[in-house]
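Now for our specimen.

. . .
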Amino acid sequence: MSPRPLARLAPLVRPYTSRLVVAFLFLVVAAAAGLVFPAVLRYLLDAAFELKDRGALDRIALGLLGVFAVQGVANFVQVFLLSSSTERIVATLREQTFAHLIRLSPAFFTERRTGELTSRLSSDLALLQSLLSTWISELSRQTLFLIGGIAMMFVTNPRLTLTTLAVVPVVVVAAFTFGRALRKASTSVQDRIGEAMGMADESFGSIRTVQSFTREGIETQRFSALLHDLVGVAVSRARLRALFFGVVGFVAFGSVAAVLWQGGAQVVEGKLTAGTLVAFLFYALFVAAAVGTLATLFGNFQEAIGAASRVFDLLDAEPTVREPEHPRRFTEPVRGAVTLQAVAFRYQPDLPDVVQDISLDIAPGEVVALVGRSGAGKTTIASLLPRFWDVTAGRISLDGIDIRELSLDTLRGAIGIVPQEPVLFSGSIRENIAYARPDASDADVLRAAEAAHAWEFIERLPEQWSTRVGERGVKLSGGQRQRIAIARVFLKDPAVVILDEATSSLDTESERYVEQALEQLLQGRTTLLIAHRLSTVRRADRVVVLDQGRIVETGSHDELLQRENGLFARLHQLS
């Protein structure tokens, strides 16, 4: 696998170049101190066993302590600089990935599971962090030990050096062979982890549905099956690693045995001192350990390339809804005139149009209701206006400007959406209302809550504004969540409101409060009302009836009821 994905980390690494250079210099100092150790040890052993000089022994031992002190300080500096830098680099990459994902079009998220995305943000980036913080450090350290160790071995005893280096080609071949297999196995493991986390996230997000159908056991079995597949792949990867370490370990320590035998023979013959043999043996161990570690790092490198590829695949994902190259802005306050001209839309190129030839003019301040059977295209039209998707054909304009020419911030800033199932975040009530305008004052938030008839229940809560609503607002009732969502739109103060049947799932009392809030919200605002219950369209100035993606009837509520064979009249009778 090409290391090209890792090269894309260069812009993130560049700001920390000076820190990394200093870390590398201290790494060199630490490695040099490590390589000095066997040479000092040689003189210490010879002073003890050959010369029997106590004074020399004491001086050499103190010198050895000095070497270890230098190595300790150098290790501290390089580890701190490298680790702190890589923490910031990976945090920046994680932030960039999240910022990119959060701006992708809804179409992207219909194709990806949330758990898979969070897995890439966590486990894949954790692999990259490991690469940057330990892999690079160890690669540099072991390379220095390998080169320096070989050089010192030749200086100490060239004949024994040739015996030691005979195993290097075997280890290198093993590293490349097992490295490729490990990369494939690791990629497969990460894929299985993403699937399992996606399934878990889906189950947790639908916990009420799972428990209402008493499917806890089924969900557990599904998760267990995914874990079983994961364990199977992980065990295969573990088997490869174990075999790799076994082969490399045998070859490396076999060479050590050969060196001990050959060096011992030279000591017996008087050609080599015991101290020199021990020093050479340490260098041989350094080289063997460096070769083994470098081989392991090669496998880790392959895993990191796979992780980087997965992360950069997300960063390379292009939004289906793009910002205009030269966005236009409103020169005057938005009036809310909405025009759809011959609009058609399909979700996939190979699928039929969901809506087709839709032409509609909505005057500023007018309330227009979209009604029709399920699947008629009501929600699709409402999703096209804020550009969650782009039209396949035709044109939508706001105050005479094609919405594709407006920046997304400008367009969506002019539109407020009250969904059928409002989504609240796990913070406080105040934070959820102020989500529409984080810099809003307490007075502004209070006015929005009062306008939405939300303050009536907020003031009765023990912590009032500070009450935490739980994940997705689970601590509030449906009517309370809906009023918080309406207060959020009040605070945003948009010119256009999209209302997706906000009272369809509420009890009578909650519906009354929400209806009062909506009545106030819609005053003076252009409103597109998606009606699932026909009784809610009475507030509309005009009713547009859709059937199979086309407009089939238009008129007021009473006018459409008088058409005996009209679709609206038939639907009204069935409601």
User: Anything to note?
Assistant: The two ends are 61 Å apart (CA to CA). The longest helix spans residues 216-268. The chain has two domains: 4-316, 338-574. The chain has a mean pLDDT of 76.
